[in-house]
Amino acid sequence: MASKLLETPKSSSSTFLGFPLELELDNLNADIAILGIPFGLPYIPHEMSNDQSHAPDAIRQNAQDAAWEEPRTRFHYDWDLGGELLDGRNVKVVDYGNVTAQTDSHEEHYRKAEIVAKKILASGSTLITLGGDHGVSIPVMRAMERDEKITLVHVDAHLDWRDEINGVKEGYSSPMRRASEMRWFDRIVQIGMRGVGSARSKEVEDARKYGAEIITAYELHEIGMQAALDRIPNNANYYLSIDADGLDPTIMPAVTAPTPGGLNWVQIYTLIHGLVNKGRVLGMDLVEISPSLDNGNMTLVHAERIICNFIGATVRANYFE
After folding, report:
1. The pLDDT of residue 42
2. What is the CATH number of the domain that holds 16?
């Protein structure tokens, strides 16, 4: 069964930073797990794929470290982290490849994604998911079912509270709405909203009625990321969901809905390190990257830095001791 759930990345460098590839789920042994989920549920009938489906392999490919005789991102001094990526510690990072494509049934692709994510999370691994559009967060969040409450921290230009579009309830405009229906999610903190998206006034009202903490991009620029972090409860379990269009298009241009005024690098860096040190981040996802729209690999460079800072921060927060 496991061999049908996962497949090898198609990028020539194969895995993220050359970390070992594992496609079997029977004996999971990883502190940090990297998983690609390429396909979201489409709003257009019979649409099989989109450019965001290529993002997991493009992110891996851009890291380039497998092509180096001495992979520099893993073993050179990283000024973002104050040392090597894994800080010389015995931390095991495994790339589990991509959830097997099921282009004739995106629902089946989601089912497989949920099974894989549930197995990884149940093993105690911290999960890093590479999307795919924002719909792929839904099976991962569903796989996080537990008795303890989880605070969901969401970075995005858009609210993502639509109930359905064209009859599709688990597409990229609905992950926060679906999370609000999962009993294991408690607080939802949404950062970076700006411009115009698919939300109507009704979705904004629903989010506020639920109790979502909405920090627009403009409020964030005024108060600073540390003040935003102070609104997130301490000593909790967290899930971090990052839509690439939550960041400013000057640094992450490869998105289908670029909107001025997004988060800058220092702000997302501060959020990642601050959140990891507030409690336990069970996992994160990075979604909505369209590689063909990139400019000089700028988006993919920042994607690599986001993932490496998350890995390095969790290592230094002693998650694995």
Report:
1. 83
2. 3.40.800.10
